[in-house]
């Protein structure tokens, strides 16, 4: 006797949708998401789609109707509650758009609770399209089966960020001038934390002195090699998750 197929299938498409979901709810999917379901994934009535609402968690839904511009879904049952992620902020300096896109994507996959872009004196970029950036984080969350989207903040100037830093949150400062080995510092830390990484040209001396003067700052080293800005952000986040996060 053949085994009963698992439901919902693991290969089902996954989407984030507003607002809050519940059993029996119906959702009309439009725009790019409808195109993805109908034209890319070629869903048909009866197929399964996994929905997340960034509030209650993950739900299985069945396709009720597929139109030219709209796909109608009926929510069937909850699969997982919204996950709890470690209280870690990633504060990467803005860099070139394509490279910062990578930081947004990987920070989401690795489990950052908040992404706080930072503008420093040597940044080659000083603006961020938040709508586009949010789309990148949503698509990354869909791909990696994350049920909680990272909080994405507007870029803040370094002076403002430091001046308003919450005293109960450790700020690990990836300082190219050196500091405690990052793995040791991360493993020993307790409570809310954040990681600050610099732009392509690094922090200047005035910025470095201002950061080090912050009581909550902990300068750390990411090793003997000079890392690209995006590599430093991703490597530091991965190391923290492996030492003190949810890995």
Question: In a few lines, what is going on in this structure?
Answer:
The protein has 247 residues and is α/β, with parallel strands linked by helices. The chain has two domains: 14-81, Beta Barrel (Ribosomal Protein L25, Chain P); 88-244, 3-Layer(aba) Sandwich (Alpha/beta knot), CATH 3.40.1280. It has seven helices and 14 strands.
Describe the structure.
- The chain is α/β, with parallel strands linked by helices.
- The protein folds into two domains: 14-81, Hypothetical PUA domain-like, domain 1 (Ribosomal Protein L25, Chain P, Beta Barrel), CATH 2.40.240; 88-244, SPOUT methyltransferase, trefoil knot domain (Alpha/beta knot), CATH 3.40.1280.10.
- Helices cover 31% and strands 26% of the residues.
- The protein has helices at 31-40, 97-110, 130-144, 158-163, 182-188, 205-212, 229-244; strands at 14-16, 26-29, 48-52, 57-66, 71-81, 88-92, 114-115, 118-119, 151-152, 156-157, 170-174, 180-181, 193-197, 217-221.
- Strands 9-7-6-13-11-14-12 form a seven-stranded parallel beta sheet. Strands 1-3-4-5-2 form a five-stranded mixed beta sheet. The chain has a two-stranded parallel ribbon with strand order 8-10.
- The model has no long low-confidence stretch (mean pLDDT 94).
